[in-house]
Amino acid sequence: MRDSNTTRTHSRDGSPQQSQGAISIVATAFNAHTRNSLQGFADLVLLDVGLKIAGSTLHEKDGSRWVGLPARKYQGDDGEAQYSKILEFASKESYWAFQDAALAAIDEFQSREGV
């Protein structure tokens, strides 16, 4: 288990590194919904900036877990559902810091609420 004040980042060659400055996130809701890699939907609050992200997605596949941000759904030219980004991380470091904190927050919520 990593120290709560460090976050995983990756160097240019993809090797793991540690950096300071973990993101403080609390999960306020989780609704299980299993389909393919999707495990459910979570509402997350980024405490340092006071931002609530409703409808984040929790995924799991082949032993990997990740949190997806809400996206805008639209119909592509082929008639299939497509999704466009609404939010995007400015750096890989901030993406990995978010992933670590969001997964920990969801795990803590599920443990506390018995979900």
Task: Please describe what this structure looks like.
The chain is an alpha+beta fold and 115 residues long. The protein has one domain (6-113). Helices cover 19% and strands 49% of the residues. The chain contains one helix and eight strands. Strands 3-4-5-6 form a four-stranded antiparallel beta sheet, covered by helices on one side. Strands 1-2 form a two-stranded antiparallel ribbon. A two-stranded antiparallel ribbon has the order 7-8. β4 (38-46) and β5 form a beta hairpin. The longest helix is centred in the C-terminal third of the chain and has 22 residues, at 92-113. The two termini are 22 Å apart. Residues 1-20 have low confidence and may be disordered.
Helix/strand layout:
Layout: E1 6-10, E2 16-20, E3 25-35, E4 38-46, E5 51-61, E6 64-68, E7 71-75, E8 81-85, H1 92-113
Antiparallel strand pairs: 1-2, 3-4, 4-5, 5-6, 7-8
Short account of what is shown:
This protein has 115 residues and is an alpha+beta fold.
What's the helix-strand series?
EEEEEEEEH
Question: What is the helix tally?
Answer: 1
Main sheet: strands, sense, barrel: 4 strands, antiparallel
Structural class: alpha+beta
What's the helical proportion of residues? 10-25%
Regions with little confidence, pLDDT below 50 for 5+ residues: 1-20
> Rounded to an integer, what's the Rg over CA atoms?
15 Å
Estimate what percentage of residues fall within beta strands: over 45%
Amino-to-carboxy terminus distance: 22 Å
Silhouette? globular
Mean pLDDT: 86
Give a count of the beta strands, DSSP E runs of length 2 or more: 8
What order do the strands of the largest sheet run in, or round the barrel if closed?
Answer: 3-4-5-6
Give the tally of structural domains. Answer: 1
Oligomer designation: single chain
